[in-house]
Amino acid sequence: MIDKILSKLPPRGTPQYVRTKRITLIVAAILLLGLPWVVTNKYYIHILISVGLYSILALSLNLVTGYAGQLSFCHVAFYGIGAYTGGLLMLRLGVSFWLAILAGALMAAFFGLILGLPTLRLRGDYLAIVTLGFGEIVRLVLINSTELTRGPLGLPGIPSPNLFGYQFSGRVPYYYLILAFLLLTLFLLRRITNSGIGLSMLAVKHDEIAAESIGIASIKYKLLAFVLSAAFAGAVGVFYASYVSFISPDTFVYTDSVTILAMVVLGGMASLPGAVLGALVLSAVPEILRAINDYRMVLYGLLMVLMMIYRPQGFWGMQRRLKNAYKYSVGGKDHA
């Protein structure tokens, strides 16, 4: 069945293949841009925004887990640090949303550096425990710093973005904003992962000793992955704070870190499209299965176990297998 489908596809590198790919991208762009006008229900637009937000979180965690091979359970802490940094700057100092995003990214990256320097020499379970502890420390600090963060009461009234005099209101502008952020994140991470930096991270992940033996500083690249990942999470945290206009410590709990990790594992580690696919699936599933929301973490855990046993390459790994099968079905070589 697959062979019949693959045999009808144009060979890679041919004008027909390039034209098909270009048409596919144009159709996808039209669908994404027109989606808010087709899906007019505000709740569904909110789900689309959540998918975009979690896609960025999954993409950034994928840099640490998928490429550098480090197991981190504190990603939501960097997300929260960015959200509180941006929220406080906008509320207390009147800083614009756009500068707040930069500040949130830098603050999260700074804490990523502070955490990464002493801990990235650890591996496996030890690193996971330390990062889990850091996430809880951040949450407790947010709860107890009542003079700065208002503690459990949270920060209400965070202003919306203003772009050339246009004040964001409603959900449609936020949809286009998160779509732009997502495309920018994909572009930047693609450049990083396809560069020598990304290849060095993968080398460290697959065999740290061998990587060290050929001159790759493993700690340097693991730390770089950690800092960059934290920066992306911090930036999207500012977006979230402005979007919902209210944040509290209970928003940034460790279960969200598990959810983001599940998105990376299910979509396919070291795969940018896989991270987006994982975010899409795990953002939509809770809405479909809202009746069993109390068992959500059990479901995520079960999915991760099954995926690691039967399909360790993730959802996008299936696409890669089809792609390889297609490549060899048209003559055993890549024409690109």
Can you give keywords for this protein?
single chain, 336 residues, mainly alpha, two-stranded antiparallel ribbon, 15 helices, globular, disordered C terminus
The SSE order reads HHHHHHHEEEHHHHEHHHH
The first-to-last residue Cα distance is 25 Å
Arithmetic mean of pLDDT: 85
Question: What is the number of beta strands?
Answer: 4
Biggest sheet, strands in spatial order?
A: 1-4
Q: Strand content of the residues, in percent?
A: under 5%
Q: What Rg is obtained from the alpha carbons, in whole angstroms?
A: 21 Å
Q: Could you list the spans in which at least 5 consecutive residues all have pLDDT below 50?
A: 328-336
Largest sheet: 2 strands, antiparallel
Kindly describe this structure.
- Residues 328-336 have low confidence and may be disordered.
- This protein has a domain at 41-159 and 167-252.
- The chain is globular and about 50 Å long.
- The protein is mostly helical.
- Strands 1-4 form a two-stranded antiparallel ribbon. A two-stranded antiparallel sheet has the order 2-3.
- Helix content is 74%, strand content 2%.
- The chain has 15 helices and four strands.
- It has helices at 2-7, 15-38, 42-67, 75-92, 97-119, 124-144, 146-149, 172-193, 196-206, 208-213, 218-244, 254-267, 272-288, 296-310, 314-329; strands spanning 155-156, 162-163, 166-167, 246-247.
